[in-house]
Specification:
Layout (H helix, E strand, L loop, with lengths): L1 E6 L4 H11 L5 E3 L5 E5 L8 H8 L2 E5 L8 E6 L1 H5 L4 H7 L4 H12 L5 H10 L6 H10 L7 H10 L3 E9 H11 L3 E10 L2 E7 L5 H15 L3 E6 L5 H6 L2 E5 L3 H4 L4 E3 L13
Parallel strand pairs: 5-6, 5-9, 6-7, 9-10, 10-11
Antiparallel strand pairs: 1-3, 1-4, 2-3, 7-8
């Protein structure tokens, strides 16, 4: 087992302490992108390492030596608060002056406190009457990619992996991101429009937790043999994460961190690349 540690800053003293704690047989500097990253091979123990790293603001992952990037066939990711930094529906609601009402429902759904499907229907109903132009304003003015997103996608694409953006958010945003970032497949909810305004209803099947997992399974079949990776932050990502060979909680809710294979709390999305030798 190897240990991969990453952080915005990993001091020499911290690195030495982690190497000593783990009993690693060396230290390899990784190309970290937006963070400092190291691989410590053949660790002797896990005891105390996670606690030390958490206190130091460092992401730590114990990875098997054969977890190779060129074996990855599929990388699936959530959109809101994962690939991008915002929750689109909350920012859309802000255009109507109702962000607090919608954001409170979003937060409860992401923590797993209320059913996602029910929460989505309630939130979309509150958007009735919103001009379509407001969606474009959110995309142009408020949507930002998570740190390292483009580097992560480029790295996995170079290794031959298929990418899937699967979201309980809206296709208005996933479609644009897919074109911009050369993402292979998308799945998201479609807002009904009439006379240039949002009606407060959805068109077609709702992409909830179950549907996310179903879309992931279909993409997995098409991708063929190899490692599958899923990345998410909220409770509605859990069925998809459970279906993946490697699941990653990215700046996630506690319920997600508790179940994922690895968690990235301090680094950008490109830190995912360093988990794969």
């Amino acid at each position: 087992m190897d240990l991969v540690i990453q952080g915005p800053v990993v001091g020499a003293a911290e690195l030495a302490s982690i190497a000593a704690l783990s009993g690693a047989q060396g230290i390899t500097v990784l190309e970290g992108g937006g963070q400092q990253a190291y691989r410590l091979p053949r660790v002797a123990t896990k005891e105390g390492v996670a606690e030390f790293c958490d206190a130091a603001g460092i992401d730590a992952a114990f990875v098997p030596g054969d977890l190779a990037r060129d074996r990855v066939r599929l990388v699936a990711m959530d959109m809101d608060s994962t690939l991008i930094t915002i929750e689109c529906i909350d920012e859309v609601a802000d255009m109507l002056g109702i962000k607090p009402q919608v954001a409170s429902i979003t937060a409860a759904a992401m923590r797993g406190e209320i059913d996602f499907r029910e929460s989505l229907i309630r939130r979309v109903a509150l958007l009735a009457g919103l001009p379509v132009e407001a969606l474009a304003r959110v995309y142009d003015e408020k949507l930002r990619l998570s740190p390292g997103a483009e580097r992560m996608l480029d790295g996995f694409a170079a290794a031959g992996a298929t990418t899937l953006l699967v979201s309980g958010g809206f296709s208005f945003f996933t479609d644009r991101l897919a074109t911009r970032l050369r993402i292979d497949e998308t799945a998201a909810n479609t807002l009904e429009m009439a006379d240039g305004r949002v009606t407060g209803r959805l068109v077609g099947a709702i992409v909830d937790a179950r549907e996310k997992a179903s879309r992931f399974a279909a993409a997995r079949r098409r991708a063929g043999d190899g490692i599958t990776v899923a990345i998410g932050d909220g409770a509605n990502d859990l069925p998809m994460l459970r279906a993946a060979d490697v699941s990653i909680a990215y700046r996630a809710k506690p319920v997600v961190r508790a179940e994922a294979t690895y968690a990235i709390d301090h680094c950008g999305l490109d830190a995912v690349l360093n988990l794969f030798a």
